[in-house]
Model the fold of this input.
Amino acid sequence: MQYDVIVIGSGPGGYVAAIRCAQLGLKTAIIEKYTTFGGTCLNVGCIPSKALLDSSEHYHNATHTFTEHGIDVKEVKVNIKQMIKRKNEVVDQTTGGITFLMKKNKIDTFEGLGSFKDKNTIKIASTKGGEQEITAKNIIIATGSKPTELPFLKTDGKRIITSTEALNLTEVPKHLILIGGGVIGLELGSVYARLGAEVTVVEFMDAIIPTMDKTLGKELQKSLTKLGMKFLLSHKVTGATVKGKKVTVTVDSPKGEKVVLEGDYCLVAVGRTAYSEGLGLENIGITLEERGKKIPVNEHLETSVKGIYAIGDVIKGAMLAHKAEEEGTFVAETIAGQKPHINYNLIPGVVYTWPEVASVGYTEEQLKEKGSKYKTGTFPFKASGRARASMDTDGLVKVLADAETDEILGVHMIGPRCADMIAEAVVAMEFRASAEDIGRISHAHPTFTEAFKEAALAATDNRAIHI
Ligand SMILES: NC(=O)c1ccc[n+]([C@@H]2O[C@H](COP(=O)([O-])OP(=O)(O)OC[C@H]3O[C@@H](n4cnc5c(N)ncnc54)[C@H](O)[C@@H]3O)[C@@H](O)[C@H]2O)c1
Done:
């Protein structure tokens, strides 16, 4: 079968690329090695983790804040089997939705492992046995990533686990030891901390979420400490052993002292590695980047071979579903002869803990390093009437603006509903708004979004009203 475009991998990068190709009139096929579409995000990432985050938040509120709201509940219990079942149903509905979208857009779907025979031919080896070949003028590699393994700390999938297994536990851990204070560790760690587990985070750097603006890590650590989570920062993991139901993790403190942690589960969340194996790239002369096994691409996201593109986690840049989606659309439109554009600096980053953390543009540390002249405005949620009404007063909004032009250069938030609130900052920055522009735009009262307006006013001329 001959196509205009073949997409390998059906995660948010791949399926969006396929749909956009089909919308543009290109005859499109998509290959997926698993039986369901959607890749990591829909099956074992973004969607199932949010389902568990929401369920655990309900439980936490029922046991911690309901009484203060004037709601007395008795015998609130965690039913982990039901929680996981609901999560699985959400996943099934969502992945089923992609099957529907493939049909609706007349995209041919193939089950199996796709690999290059030559630059236009893809061999598909079905997991059920059997092989077939399809050809295309253009091929988009969207094979994503998999959890990074530490060479000295192998996961066994039972007691030493990755995020995939952490989404399917049959019991609430007594003591969960987390290696890595990044996005996955903190999201899944907070799920189990809310459900009653003791959670200890071991982080190599001197802050959690270390790549985000430093203010956010500090604030988040305060909130998660209130939740009961413990943090060992600047600590180096040296190994882990399993004996029956017990995991022992050994750690070096910053002073070189040996620390021994004992728990019943250890979750390793130290990043993800590009999934570029088994694609037969050697058959077409594509060599991987030495670090991280990523596929090198040019500014059109085209590999060293004409007509072969790569997008999402398998190439450079943030490993985020929405970045992959933008790249999927970008490549489809490039193949169709258009001249699309992606503003990589304005791809937001979100951590779905509670309070939520969200960020766009430059961090204060990056502006300092660049030597930029900037001004800062912050507004704490403590001063927001809406936040007080909902008892969600942790966190703040911080706006960084150019000292001369007042253009917004970065927005960093931690607080209630910041994952959604960040969209306003992205739009503002895409249209190159100044801090004063935001300060002069009406924001509905009472909403959490007023905190962004107030932080913008604070950055403009220290003109915040409610602080
Ligand atoms: N909400 C979201 O957007 C979301 C959610 C989950 C995952 N993701 C993405 O998936 C990817 C993987 O997430 P992640 O949390 O595994 O990676 P991450 O890069 O966010 O965090 C990994 C953390 O582990 C630390 N670390 C590395 N080696 C260590 C060691 N030996 N000992 C102790 N700490 C160590 C790092 O300093 C870092 O803080 C990320 O790129 C992330 O953006 C995004």
Remarks:
- Residues 2-146+273-344 form a domain with the FAD/NAD(P)-binding domain fold (CATH 3.50.50.60).
